[in-house]
User: Fold these one by one.
Assistant:
Number 1:
Amino acid sequence: MFRWLLLGFFTFVSGGAQADPSALWKIVDGQCVPHEEETHNPAPCSAVDLAQGVDKGTAVLKDIVGIAQFLLLPTARIGGIEDPAVLAPGATNYWEAAWQARHFVDERLHTALPREDVSLAINSLYGRTQDELHIHIDCIRPDVRDALTANLDKIGDRWAPFPVPLAGHNYRAIRVIGDNLDSVNPFLILADSDPRIRADMGMHTLVVAGETFPGGSRGFVLLDDQADLLAGNRASGEQLQDHSCAVAEKR
């Protein structure tokens, strides 16, 4: 059973024509959660946190794509960025859980990446293949990191167009101060920026990049892009990540 479910997952990440949009959910719900409950071994996941119950729990799974890419997933059935559950009162802050899970990336790379080299991303409804919410945890693309560094002084505490295209797309950006994300939820920051966005979250991709701002304050840059299917833009913020982790090779 385990082997066949993983085969389905490998098919989806490899771009197979028979991709199963529920492959991730089958792994988390069918294997990781019951294994954690029964034996305290979350395999094939790297970690499962059920401290607040399955409805609010999280799982971390190594993606087959990339040398150190991991996915943060709910242990509840949540479709994606468009699911009302991500904005519900008392919702789990999946972004904070994903940020805390970045140590799995470090362990794979055998190094401690500075926050500026780490990124989290969720794709839009039109830029993903899976119907279970998952946040990609991986290295940021070197060119994206350099563009952020060069423009940090232009990013404020209100959403505004980022000065230059990133991976060929025009993003909005906002700055968030804090060592971690325990007091802010990027889903809410995006939804609260415009009632039209709140009503159509599925059109958006969201990327969170760790940063150290001028003056030494630590925080994050949030990046938002909106799908434009006529223009061929499916809003896949994952494109700002580098699954080969070239930034780690320079450390």
Note: Residues 23-39 form the longest helix (17 residues).
Number 2:
Amino acid sequence: MDALTHAVEAYIGGSTTKSTRKNALRATKLIFENIYKAYDDGTDIEARKNMLKASFYAGCAFTKSYVGYVHAVAHSLGGKYNIPHGLANATLLPFVLEDYGSAVYKKLYELAVYSGVANETDDYETAAHKFIDAIKDMKKYFNIGDTFSEIRKEDIPELSRYADKEANPLYPVPVLMNAKELEKFYYMLMEKETV
């Protein structure tokens, strides 16, 4: 799911090329076609090989097109609480995509249709929601939750400043947010009884 985050953030950002878009599309399709097979049967060498290719293509995409707020927030969680990077990305990805709203509908439509998650006849918004829902389903299947018990309310201003400093102005995100606006993601990730 870390590779999926690389591909998606590279694709929806504002600094893509024909080559990075192609790599992101290939990676996303390969992931949706193979991640469950590789997870369910570790001896499925073909599925594992395809996941390795997907990771490579996603890496090629994001090293040229950068990532976005999913990574910026995830890095701050890793730095402060030692939360594993891939886990933080997987947990955050649908939240950030939903928050971007209509700014990413067309690009998520393209990813969804190419990956077989949506149909060409779907409108942009419908396909985008199908794509986000498919990521949520993936999280459930892999027992990835929506919260982190480590997050402390008093740390959130500092964490959001780190994320803001990393992302702005380096990452070509679809919707620009400042440190105060980024705080919402940490609140979303907090266990509800601690909010």
Note: The CA atoms of residues 10 and 62 lie 5 Å apart.
Number 3:
Amino acid sequence: MSNKENYIKAFVEALEVAEDSVEQLEYQSVAAWDSVGHMSLIAAIEDTFDIMMDTDDIIELDSFKKGMEILSENYGIEF
């Protein structure tokens, strides 16, 4: 699986959303992406890519797209 496919899978599993809706997601745009869902998502992303995200990055990750930017710029994950 590609990094993008793994990233999508983390969203689908953590937030229990349909794969085809993931790329448009933003924080609190679905009921599951609340503060608790956010931490589940972060855990899924960290497990998927074997990283430990900084607090600032966790706070800034407020959309699918922003998450890709953070992972690419700060953790060297290519999409």
Note: DSSP finds four helices and no strands in the chain.
Number 4:
Amino acid sequence: MSMNFFKHLHTVGKHRRLVRKLCFKCGLIRQGLTHDLSKYSFAEFWSGVKYYQGYRSPQAKEREELGYSAAWLHHKGRNKHHFEYWTDFADGDKIYVEMPPKYFVEMVCDRIAASKTYLKESYTDASPLEYFLTKTDRGGMNPETAKKLEYYLTMLKDNGENFTFKALKKYAKQKNTPHG
């Protein structure tokens, strides 16, 4: 367990550094600096230590063992760069709100950084798109957000990081909605 503490701490730190670097490329300085700070909270960090594996999110293992992830429930409710944050309920229906540009761009940076963190040497610019297409619950995402995410991840696969981050920086500068 003590080794998992340091391994998880290293993984979280590495992921946050990668997201910070990518957010900075998009002009999102504040978001780069504050990204995923909730991962250091007791609710998220100790779960991460307990379920640490090194090759995927500890939340996946926690979900397998408990049927849900308490750490994920905590995390998604505090971090606007997760599309799940933008789900609401009205009259018994789920409402999927389109993500404001600055949080959308942070989500793209987060997905790329997570792929790099967990896939290590086997990462390619196609990896985040592959994960999105095979593992993301797109039915739980606003359709416009899903379309844009697939568009930018395809752009990454086809044109590489430099091209994609120039486009994302431009998109991030668009006016955010009042809820953003």
Note: Helices lie at 2-25, 29-34, 42-50, 58-66, 70-76, 101-119, 127-135, 143-172.
